[in-house]
């Protein structure tokens, strides 16, 4: 089983190209995986550095993880 949660940034003024006011911008994800009953959960995550639009790296890293 996979448990995924996503952290979003909500900005009034768009900072990135192709974004709009009040748009949620995902900047981090966390994933816990349980491979078998009673096993320890495995953790994977992504956190942007905040210097550029996080959406492309966010999507690619999440797809790679799942």
Question: Which tags fit this structure?
Answer:
66 residues, alpha+beta, 3-stranded antiparallel beta sheet
Give the ordered list of helices and strands. EEEH
Per DSSP E runs of 2 or more residues, the count of β-strands stands at 3
Q: What is the number of helical segments per DSSP (H or I, 4+ residues)?
A: 1
Separation of the first and last Cα atoms: 11 Å
Share of helix among residues? Answer: 10-25%
Strand-pairing-aware structural class: alpha+beta
Largest sheet, in brief, is: 3 strands, antiparallel
Strand order of the largest sheet: 1-2-3
Q: Determine the strand fraction and express it as a percent band.
A: 35-45%
The low-confidence runs, each spanning 5 or more residues with pLDDT under 50, are none
**Overall average residue pLDDT:** 93
Radius of gyration: 14 Å
Mass-distribution shape: elongated
Write structural notes for this entry.
With 66 residues, the protein is an alpha+beta fold. 17% of the residues lie in helices and 38% in strands. The chain is built from one helix and three strands. It has a three-stranded antiparallel β-sheet, with helices on one face. A hairpin with an 8-residue loop joins strand 2 (24-33) and strand 3. The radius of gyration is 14 Å and the shape is elongated. 5% of the residues are buried. The model has no long low-confidence stretch (mean pLDDT 93).
């Amino acid at each position: 089983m996979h448990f995924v949660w996503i952290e979003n940034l909500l900005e009034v003024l768009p900072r990135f190209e192709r974004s709009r006011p009040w748009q949620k911008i995902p900047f981090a994800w966390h994933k816990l995986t349980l491979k078998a009953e009673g096993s320890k959960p495995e953790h994977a995550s992504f956190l942007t550095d905040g210097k550029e639009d996080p959406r492309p790296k966010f999507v690619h890293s999440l797809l790679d993880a799942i």
